[in-house]
Amino acid sequence: MNFWEYLGNRHQQLLTDAYQHASVVFQCMVVATVIGVLIAVVTYSGEWSGNLATTTTATILTVPALALIGLLIPIVGLGVPPTVIALTLYGLLPVVRNAIVGLRGVDPSLVDAATGIGMSRPARLLRIELPLAWPPILTGIRVSTQMLMGIAAIAAYASGPGLGNVIFRGLASLGSANALNQVLAGTLGIIVLALLFDAAYVLIGRLTIPRGIRA
After folding, report:
1. Could you write out the DSSP letters of every residue in 132-200?
2. Residue 72 needs a FRET pair 20 to 30 A away by CA distance; which of 4, 90, 137, 203 works?
3. How many CA atoms lie within 13 A of 44 on its CB side?
4. Are 98 and 140 in contact (CB under 8 A)?
C-alpha cells in the first residue's frame, strides 16, 4: 500500500502514539522548567555558581540519549520511568542557561527601587525579576521542547511511549511492505508535533510578554 493508504488504515494507532509522544514531552518540559528555573534562581547571583550550573547541565547533554536510557534501564526498568528521567535531564540546559541570562539582565536599578519600597527578596523575585526574565526563559523552553521531540523517539528503545515505536518497528522490518511508511509516518508526526508546540509557544509569548518588552 502507498503512504496515504497506510495513514488511512493506521490513523487511530498513529494518533494514539502522537498523543503519548506529545504528552510525555509536555510533562517532562514542565518538570524541567520548574527545576531549571529553581536552579537559576539559586545560582544566578554568583559568577562561579552560575557557571557551574550551566556547565553541569551542558555535561548531561553530551551523554548520548541511547546510552543514558540504557544506563537507566537497570535502575528504573523499562517504559515510562527511564523516558521521563532522560527527557527531563536533557531539557534542563536551555532553561537553566536562559533563566540565568534573563535574571542577570534585569536592570539593577529596578531591583534597588523595589528594595527601597520595602519588597522582600521573594516578592522582588516573583514580581520584578522573573517577569522581566520571562522572554529568555520562554526561548529556552522552546529550544528544549524542539530537542526533546526528537530525543523522545529514542525512548522506544526502552519501550517508552510515543512515535518512536512506529519508527523503530519500521527500521526493524526494513524490506517489508510497510517499513518505509512506518518510518515516514513516525518522522513526519514528530515534525508536525514540534511545529504545533512551537506555534503554541509563540502564542504564549504574545499573551504573556508585554509589547514593550518584546520590542
Report:
1. HHHHHHHHHHHHHHHHHHHHHHHGGGGT-SSTHHHHHHHHHTTTSTTHHHHHHHHHHHHHHHHHHHHHH
2. 137
3. 22
4. yes
pLDDT, tens digit (0-9, with 9 covering 90-100), for 39-62: 999 999 888 999 999 999 999 999
pTM to 2 decimal places: 0.90
- Compute CA distances 199 → 20, 111, 192, whole Å: 19, 33, 11
Residue (of 201, 161, 134) closest to 17 by Cα position: 161
Q: Tell me the C-alpha distance between 89 and 31, whole Å.
A: 10
CB 153 within 8 A of CB 162: yes
Residue 60 CA to residue 199 CA, distance in Å, equals 28
Q: Compute the CA torsion angle 44, 49, 53, 55 (nearest 10 deg).
A: 120
> What SS3 string covers 125-140?
HHHHHHHHHHHHHHHH
pLDDT 10s digits, 7-44: 888 889 999 999 999 999 999 999 999 999 999 999 99
Give the Å distances, CA to CA, from 8 to 25, 185, 189.
26, 11, 14
